[in-house]
């Protein structure tokens, strides 16, 4: 039975990865920062460790065939930086994988990273990818276009009464559901692929996503398009007027909104169905599960 260690296992994608590899007959070891967050995780074993502290990883990867890391920060709630987690923690895990003789290391990156290299979140991820590809270990990099849960921001605005877009709203994205992305990751690692830009089965403009959100709520669309100069001004001002936990995700979001984020189509789950499920939730509930886990 092949063995896989999933890092960032208690995050949104990590949970799908654990379930997907388990269903494919792997012995799944979940690396978690806190066992209390591992409820209902589909895994054969749990390892509680702080990947930001390399000494806690010593010996933990012995006998592991594959490491899949969805380790990273999207919401800086605990004071850790992207450099410490997205780069440093993953590098600690990679070095331990090298020492343990792990056969392959897979990492969940982000599509269009070169166009966003100046964004701290993306810079940290890209620097780790560089280290991974320079390593002697076989590697797979999966760069998704965006998650369905990211599209929850459109839905939240629609529920509040108006969706605000920058520019024409014509930029395109094919977001992917976490379960479909987990299957794409597993397919890529089993095939020994080096890199995969991937997205969901449908491509939309931002305007089309906004209209879909209103349709799920059975409301007429109210969309306001702001000049792109405002987006650029916000990017310049954010580091000076907002704390890092707000500035970091906002920089990524505002930059990604100016790009086409389209990967190879994969999966079967439809965004309309995701929005329909959100519409059934009470307005006070969270629009989406969090992505990633700074293990």
UniProtKB/TrEMBL annotation:
PANTHER family in the record: PROTEIN HIGH CHLOROPHYLL FLUORESCENCE PHENOTYPE 244, CHLOROPLASTIC, PTHR47128
Secretion signal span: none
InterPro entries: HCF244-like, NAD(P)-bd_dom, NAD(P)-bd_dom_sf
Superkingdom, taxonomy of origin: Bacteria
Keywords: Photosynthesis, Photosystem II
Gene Ontology BP term (one): photosynthesis
One term under GO cellular component: photosystem II
Gene3D superfamilies per UniProt: NAD(P)-binding Rossmann-like Domain
Domain NAD(P)-binding: 8-147
Protein name per the record: SDR family oxidoreductase
